From TrEMBL, chain A:
InterPro entries (alphabetical): Glyco_hydro/deAcase_b/a-brl
Classification via Gene3D superfamilies: Glycoside hydrolase/deacetylase
Protein name: Polysaccharide deacetylase
Domain of life the protein comes from: Bacteria
TrEMBL record, chain B:
Record family assignment: Belongs to the polysaccharide deacetylase family.
Database matches in Pfam families: Polysacc_deac_1
Biological function: Is involved in generating a small heat-stable compound (Nod), an acylated oligomer of N-acetylglucosamine, that stimulates mitosis in various plant protoplasts.
Domain NodB homology residue range list: 47-150
Organism the protein comes from: Jiella pelagia
Protein name: Chitooligosaccharide deacetylase
Length: 180, 312
């Protein structure tokens, strides 16, 4: 997204996505292949974006079709329970003061470890969402280091980028169409 | 980082751990802010705020407990007071100063300057400065804008003009900055590269948000979470040799078991070698001398462009 919001007008949406990808590719020095946004799947595919990470409809990655049943898009699910801002940011998503429940690092360590353990036991998948302005604070960097170190005590945990994970899925689990 | 009009307040360049130094080879700095603003709402102190028994407790038993603890541990704290409070509580101001602590300004009435009519902010600031000078014997060196319980944001409130007005009035630092975890420069005028030294504040270390937040009686009481945050951040910043600030109020953290939490945290923190628990003006003076804006503030030119199809 160019402005953390997707324009409703398709012409403006195209212009925004084109600008956003150009800006990110300048920084990254390589093509951008993934997004977390509600951009139109057909437009994303046309621009070379082949995966999204913008749903909690399933726990494991899956191919999502658009309203017309086309433009399959690989979704790498995320969940708000694995989003640091949910726990650490005051007023997140315009919540009122009396609804604040800002938590400390030990509480989140326990929640995230439980989530990891649940998926580890089934050989599954997790996608954490960390904001540098939230989790970049020193105590949270320490907590995340502790969490990753504990994850690495268990055998066979793979820490890929979303792009590498998407490539793996395209290679080993390509889209085969809708089963009749 | 490139400057972004209406979005950024600093150069967004963090200082590396190894580049941070403290006086006499000390390892880290600990800032202790004592919030003396009883206001719950943006308008500042009201009769209702002053009628709370816990406010009276805070200015009496709570404050005495704070002063005793700070003296025992060799901590110099900074009391952020609305000018009205400093004027109304003479004996308390005298006790705070006598113990070697600093009193800094927190508005005329602990108010949100965004609610004032055009031109009134400068007037309030002038009156606050005069009152504090009269009450403490010296002009305040620092200005705070700590968040109140009913504020919609946990950041404190300033206007686009606040930092420039403080500069013009000779303030040495602004005490409520969320853009870094070490002191930094808040740019008040990008074209002239004018700025004011700013000391970090973060609401995760402020008792306001953990001890009956947002209101006494119905609010969330989470003293253990507050203490865990203090310990986790202190230990991380100690290891890095950086800076850590906590913000407490005698009305909240002076009370019984909460005071035990504050005392045991500060006892543990001060047991580490090389912790410099200094007043905000001493911290600011050190930073100003070792990392002056002339060499350490490096804002890059703006890359901002307006597009016709922008949604904002």
């Amino acid at each position: 997204m160019w402005e953390h919001e997707v324009p409703k007008d398709p012409v403006i949406e195209d212009a925004h996505l084109t600008r956003a990808l150009a800006a990110l590719e300048t920084v990254a020095g390589r093509p951008i292949t993934g997004t977390r946004s509600s951009h139109t799947p057909a437009l994303l595919r046309q621009k070379g974006v082949v995966y999204n990470s913008f749903t909690s409809a399933r726990t494991m990655p899956f191919y999502e079709l658009d309203a017309e049943g086309g433009n399959p898009m690989l979704q790498l699910p995320f969940h708000y329970a694995l989003d640091d801002a949910m726990y650490f940011s005051f007023g997140w998503l315009a919540t009122p003061n009396a609804a604040q429940r800002i938590l400390d690092v030990d509480e989140i360590f326990d929640i995230w470890w439980a989530a990891f353990e649940h998926q580890y036991k089934r050989g599954g998948y997790l996608n954490f969402l960390l904001h540098p302005f939230v989790s970049g604070h020193a105590m949270r960097v320490d907590m995340i280091e502790r969490l990753i170190k504990r994850m690495r005590t268990l055998p066979g945990v793979w820490f890929p980028t979303c792009g590498a994970l998407a490539e793996h899925i395209f290679t080993h689990h390509p889209y085969r169409g809708v089963e009749e | 980082m490139p400057w972004k009009d209406n979005y950024t307040t600093s150069d967004e360049i963090g200082v590396r751990d190894g580049a941070v130094t403290w006086p006499e080879g000390r390892h880290m700095a600990l800032g202790l802010t004592v919030n003396l603003n009883p206001a719950a709402k943006a308008c500042g102190v009201t009769a209702k705020d002053l009628a709370y028994p816990t406010w009276h407790f805070g200015m009496d038993e709570g404050l005495q407990a704070f002063l005793g603890l700070f003296e025992r541990l060799g901590i110099r704290a900074t009391f952020a007071a609305p000018a009205f409070v400093a004027e109304a509580y003479g004996p308390q101001v005298e006790a705070i100063l006598k113990a070697g602590h600093e009193i800094a300004a927190q508005g005329l009435l602990g108010e949100d300057p965004n609610l004032l009519e055009a031109g009134q902010e400068a007037d309030h600031m002038d009156r606050a400065g005069e009152i504090l000078k009269r009450a403490t014997g010296a002009a305040p060196k620092g200005w705070y804008a700590l968040p109140r319980g009913d504020d919609r944001f946990a950041t404190g409130t300033v206007t686009d003009a606040t930092i420039g007005l403080l500069r013009e009035r000779g303030y040495g630092y602004f005490g409520t900055g969320l853009a870094d975890d070490a002191p930094y420069y808040w740019i008040s005028d990008f074209s002239r590269r004018e700025s004011l030294l700013t000391l970090p504040y973060y609401y995760h270390f402020d008792d306001t948000f953990f001890l009956m937040f947002p209101h006494e009686g119905t609010g969330l009481e989470r003293p253990a979470a507050l203490k865990r945050n203090w310990r986790a951040q202190f230990l991380a910043q100690y290891r890095r040799g950086r800076y850590f600030n906590i913000t407490v109020s005698p009305a909240r953290s002076g009370w019984q078991h909460r005071f035990d939490d504050l005392a045991s945290f500060l006892e543990e923190a001060m047991s580490y070698p090389g912790v410099w628990a200094a007043s905000a003006s001493d911290l600011a003076a050190h930073w100003q001398a070792t990392c002056p804006a002339e060499t350490h503030l490096k804002p890059a030119a703006s890359i901002w462009r307006d597009y016709d199809d922008s949604l904002s």
